[in-house]
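Researcher: Here's a chain I'd like modeled. Treat it as a single chain, no partners, no ligands.
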Amino acid sequence: MQRQSHAFSLFIIGTLFFVFGFVTWINSQLIPFLKQVCELQTDTQAYLVTFAFFISYFVMSIPSSYILEKTGFTKGMALGLFIMAAGSLLFIPAAKHQAYSLFLIALFIQGAGLSILQTASNPYAVILGSPESAARRISIMGICNKVAGMIGVFILGTILFSNIESISENLNTLEGAAYKAELQILSSRLVMPYIVIAIALSLLALMVLYANLPKIEAERLPKDQPKTIFSYTYLWLGVLAIFAYVGAEVIAIDTLSLYGNYHGINNDDAKFFSVLSLIALTVGYLIGIIFMPKYISQRIALVISCLLALVFVSIAIVTPSYLSIGLIILLSFAHAMMWPCIWPLSIEGLGEHTKLGAAFLIMAIAGGAILPMLYGGLAEMTNRQSAYWILIPLYLYILYFSLHGYKINKHKMLLK
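Model: Modeled as a single isolated chain. Structure tokens:
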């Protein structure tokens, strides 16, 4: 009976991870689209899309943990979905007025809702079973996430970039009111998709409210364990590892369209690069599910992932266009096991601090806000290919965490 209850709960959490992926990865299509529609001049301005979306995790993660303390997991998840729906609806006036600032506010609101969902669902998936198989469960959730991302990127990319090259050529021949009118028609392509997204999110929120998910509590701390979360050194090193990982993952996917443009590939073709990256991630997740924890441990999988990523990016920086693009896409394969492995290694043994620890790990998703902006700045100072060197120190740090940082102070805490 308990196994059936856990299976149903994982199905609901998997559905939520599907939502995470759909809403998150369609942003890769918004970057080049809004750059044209809102007449942005630089890559740094375009990457404000990722900044607005992911910085909300930093702002909302700690408030999210307190919200969940008051509402519980189920009501908190539903609240997060309703907030995301509100952010989606804000795309309607933003598209009507081609107001970039309003788009960014809408993305921030979406990210705020996702922050609540992530703060609830990730520890829920970790606790819902043995710690040794946590990375496997999160990998299954990751497949839901990336399949949704592929679907979202394909659908939105098709809607936004249909005949985009001929439209762009036509825009170059127009001026004044005619030019603005054509841009308005192009911008209106965003309206219907985000209305559908808002409706779907609201219906899912109602489903979660009535799903009757079981209450899963973290283990209670013995009385002699530290009462402050700041005593857990390995958690804070894990927070920084999540920051580095999310930044690297977002850079590797959301920069691909503009990177394709840099090598002379038009948006009609470049829009599919993100789909290929998400396929690479999904393949990585499937391999992780097969091999962990039966054949390799979570930690060893993380070490291998870091080494692969370092090899791929080092070669991508110095090779010709198509090979370089292919290697950046392969980075997503290397990324697949990073989130599933960093999470359980960071959260193990936190006991009653689990929810707050999860909130700090979710806060670190802000790496997806800050690091792509740094990439954009470097791309303007050098070029879009050379700027990928920013990934190397990120992978080196995650490698350090997988070799040593994950265990600092941990055994002492678990033995108390």
